[in-house]
Specification:
29% of the residues lie in helices and 31% in strands. By secondary structure, it is of the alpha/beta class. The termini are far apart.
Length: 260
C-alpha cells in the first residue's frame, strides 16, 4: 500500500547537470520542453535542427542529454525522456528547477484495440493508475484526467497537418512484463484503448506542481490478439513514418508559445 502525504519532500531536485559537471538553479532553460522517449528519434531531431547540448539529466547509473533547439523563431528545451514513471517524474522535477514549466512528452504505446493502426496518433484523455509514482503526488483514485488544457489545441495541430487520431483512456502500468490478458480485458472494458508506462505519472506530478503538460502516443504493439503482435514496437520499424511525429510536438509548442 502506498501512503500519500501532503508534506513537502525531504529530498529536493538540484536541476540538470551542466556540461562542466555542475548544477546551477540559476541556469535557465527555455520554459517549454519536448521529451522524446526514443533515442533514435532524438538523434534524428538533433541531426535536422540546430540543437545545442547544454547538459544531462543525471540519475542513478544513467545520463540522458538535454538540448536547446530552435524551431521557427522560438527556442525549445529538448530531452531524452526517461522510460517509466519514476524516471519521467525525476526528469520533470529536475528540468523544472531550471525554469521549465510546460512539458510536451510523447512516445510509443501498446494498443488494446486491434483496429487502431500501427503508428496511429493517440490522444489519451484519462489514465488508469496501475503504477506507483502518481500515488505519491496525488491522493488515491482509480484514474486521472489527462491533457485538459491543450487537448483541443493539439487536435488543431493534427487537423492542420492532415493527421487522423484516436482519443480515449490509457492504462498506465509499471509492470510491463505483467500485462496479463485478465488485466488487459478489465481495463479495456473500462474504456482503455492503449497501455504505456508514464501517462498517469506525468499528469500527477504536473498537477501537484501546477505545471502545464501534454502527452500523446503513436501506436505500437497490439495486445488485442490471440498472440501478442509486435508490429512496430521496435524503434526502427516504420522509422520514416515516426520521424514525422516530433513535428507535431514542436507545432504544439509553437502554438502554446504564440497563443494561436
Amino acid at each position: 500500500m502506498i501512503i500519500y502525504s501532503e508534506e513537502e519532500s525531504i529530498t529536493k531536485p538540484f536541476g540538470i547537470k551542466k556540461l562542466d559537471g555542475t548544477r546551477d538553479i540559476n541556469f535557465k532553460l527555455p520554459h517549454i520542453a519536448v521529451g522524446v522517449f526514443s533515442e533514435y528519434l532524438l538523434d534524428d531531431i538533433v541531426a535536422k535542427f540546430g540543437c545545442e547540448k547544454v547538459g544531462v539529466i543525471s540519475c542513478a547509473n544513467c545520463q540522458r542529454p538535454v538540448y536547446v533547439m530552435k524551431y521557427k523563431d522560438m527556442k525549445i528545451t529538448l530531452f531524452l525522456a526517461g522510460v517509466s514513471g519514476p524516471w519521467i517524474s525525476a526528469d520533470i522535477e529536475e528540468l523544472n528547477v531550471n525554469g521549465v514549466n510546460t512539458f510536451i512528452i510523447f512516445g510509443n504505446c501498446g494498443v488494446l484495440d486491434k483496429s487502431i493502426e500501427d503508428c496511429s496518433i493517440i490522444i489519451p484523455n484519462k489514465a488508469f493508475r496501475d503504477e506507483g509514482v502518481s500515488y505519491h503526488y496525488l491522493p488515491e483514485s482509480e484514474s486521472i484526467e489527462l491533457n485538459k488544457e491543450y487537448r483541443e489545441l493539439f487536435k488543431k495541430v493534427l487537423q492542420e497537418n492532415s493527421y487522423d487520431y484516436v482519443e480515449g483512456a490509457t492504462w498506465t502500468t509499471d509492470g510491463f512484463y505483467r500485462e496479463t490478458r485478465e488485466k488487459m480485458e478489465m481495463f479495456k472494458k473500462k474504456g482503455a484503448i492503449c497501455v504505456e508506462m508514464e501517462g498517469a505519472s506525468i499528469a500527477a506530478i504536473c498537477e501537484y506542481k501546477k505545471l502545464n503538460y501534454f502527452t500523446f502516443y503513436y501506436a505500437g504493439d497490439n495486445l488485442d490478439a490471440v498472440e501478442w503482435k509486435e508490429r512496430s514496437i521496435s524503434q526502427l520499424i516504420n522509422f520514416e513514418k515516426k520521424t514525422k511525429v516530433p513535428f507535431l510536438a514542436f507545432e504544439l509548442a509553437y502554438k502554446i508559445e504564440n497563443k494561436t
